Amino acid sequence: MADQMQWANALSTRPSLEAAVTDVVEQAVSSLTASADLGLVFISSAFASEYSRLLPLLSEKLSVPVIIGCSGVGVVGTKATGEPEELEAEAAISLTLAHLPGVNVQAFHLLGDELPDLDSSPNAWINLIGVQPFPSPQFILLPSAFSGKINDLLQGLDFAYPGSVIVGGQASSGSSNRQTSLFCHDPANGLYQQMYRQGTVGLALSGNILLDTIVAQGCRPIGQPMQVTKAEGNIIVEINETAPLEVLQNLISSLNEQDRMLAQHSLFVGVVMDQFKLTVQQGDFLIRSILGVDPLGGAIAIGDTVRPGQRLQFQLRDAQASAEDLELLLQQYQKQQNSPAPSGALMFSCLGRGQGLYGRSNFDSELFRRYIQDIPIGGFFCNGEIGPVSGNTFVHGYTSVFGICRPLTVE
């Protein structure tokens, strides 16, 4: 039998850190029939006072060349029954192990002040990461919630590694403890049981591996796409040669009563990322918040820079829109019938989703499993989610990003 890619995930809610680590290691190891090449660990903020003990405890019980992970308000994993579970605001650990034949696994830790200037050559970024752009590495990034220059890092990686896919999420913490933590263990590259408060830990996976992505931003468009005709930085001065506030007021007045109520607190802007695409649909927009409105001049400030000529469409977000958006993207992925089949998945979900959005647990992960079955899933609730839209990588909010892992070829 050929050596095949394998993924396993285990969850534990044991209140003792030692017991929880023992629990997840035993479960995950027993699910693999070959040695693990990679570990991904996500630990809830209920264990915040014991973060420094996590990697030493894992290393006592687990022999794996590379481990990365971070803290989260909640974690996502797979129960022994194969069903996904999202554990929010309770003591929990999620451990993913992967056997990756034909894949080179390299971990790294970067600080914002180590990054090259954005006008630097691709070689400056390649030298920083220490991984060649061919074959295209697949990246998993776990930044600190307060990490500077994460947008610069994403732009630099997109520039230097044009064929690569990047997913991940910013570490999060509970309201009573703002200290997020990142974990990295890769002795072959000089990183031994390291815990960090700042920067970004990441993985570069090169060789026989591909990350398919689903980026569910949870909005539905209202009105029609329009063109920005005047803008300065993140300020939209004119849309279709009209003051944005006037455009918005006319749009809201055309909505039904339920949507008008929703627009009072859940209105966003979707910027079309592919300017050459004639017909746009869900998945073509980069969703950004509306930061403020100038009642005199009618300009609108949004949470990103915008250029004249870009198209945009206003968006609404609620539980139903989020569910429909994710289901539509899952249906599109299922129709692709990718081969070889996926082996495992990672889920990076905004801490504003979950029970707070849907009113019940496990919504996104159960919907995912309905369409993509029989693979383990692990992840956590983030303070910003990382994933591509129209070929470029961004930090999102209120989003669930899935990285679906499969081999490029059957070994």
Automatic annotation (TrEMBL):
Predominant location: membrane
Residues annotated as domain FIST C-domain: 244-389
Name of a matching Pfam family: FIST_C
Source domain of life: Bacteria
Residue ranges occupied by any FIST domain in the UniProt entry: 35-243
SMART domains in alphabetical order: FIST, FIST_C
A GO CC term attached to the entry: plasma membrane
Record InterPro entries: FIST_C, FIST_domain_N, UCP018953
Protein's name according to its UniProt entry: FIST C-terminal domain-containing protein
Organism name: Chrysosporum bergii ANA360D
